[in-house]
Amino acid sequence: SGGLSGPNPSNSPGGISSFSGVGPTRDGRVKPDVAAPGEWVGSTLAGAYRTSLNGTYTERDGQHGDLRGTSMATPHVAGVAALLLGLNPALDGPQIKAAILLGAQIDEFTGPTPNVQYGYGKLRAPEAGTRAVTIVTGLAALVPAGFAAPASLFVDSYNVYRGTIPGISGTDYGTCFLSGLPSPVFDDAETPFPGQAFFYLVTGVRLGVEGILGTDSDGKVRPPLSPCP
């Protein structure tokens, strides 16, 4: 009939749903990771489920319906993860997670993050994409000298961090070695002392946003000891 129906939401626009799961975990870790849309979202009705909803929750075409909950929120996050893999298929799980968390929105509803209601904030696909394209993967040595990684069409410039082994720690993943490179290709004429080795981490910069130095074994972002300017 052209009319509109609106199931009563359990929250105010922008606020957390009343049924949203909260943390922390039993061992004290912050959960959830992010908050995603899940309050009456329209999607495809499958099979016999189509007949189980009344008119209030069925769209006018009879093929789509409105549901709320984790079943609606989770696909948003999974879809963003798929988009990030489309931007850079070499990303691993912790890197995708880091891009999503670092790109999450913080506003008057979330308050300071991370917290046990919104995690690191509200899911944002464009910002997660910006974070993802600035993660440089596939760094390899060149012959006879130098290093290179696949360039990204979306990155404006690249920074190189260099560290020494032994010497790496949970708070020291290298210092700024080169900054503002037009491509992820560089040379280092220096050689480490006997018994030591250099390691390199490369980040991309997009619209002033620098990528991460990767993640450690716990999935935490590696912090730069001396950030590139």
Report on this model:
The chain is α+β, with helices and mostly antiparallel strands. It has helices spanning 70-87, 93-102, 125-133, and strands at residues 41-44, 64-67, 140-141, 147-148, 157-165, 175-181, 185-186, 197-206, 209-210. A 4-stranded antiparallel sheet has the order 6-5-8-9, covered by helices on one side. The protein starts with 40 loop residues before the first strand and ends in a 19-residue tail after the last strand.
Keywords:
229 residues, alpha+beta, three-stranded antiparallel beta sheet
Side by side, the strands of the main sheet go 6-5-8-9
**Coarse shape:** elongated
Count of DSSP E strands?
Answer: 9
Please give the count of helices.
3
By secondary-structure content and strand pairing, the structural class works out as alpha+beta
Share of helix among residues?
10-25%
Rounded to the nearest angstrom, the distance between the terminal CA atoms is: 60 Å
User: What are the segments in which pLDDT stays under 50 over at least 5 consecutive residues?
Assistant: none
* Rg measurement, Å: 22 Å
N-to-C order of helices and strands: EEHHHEEEEEEE
Reported for the largest beta sheet, the result is: 4 strands, antiparallel
Mean pLDDT: 86
Content of β-strand: 15-25%
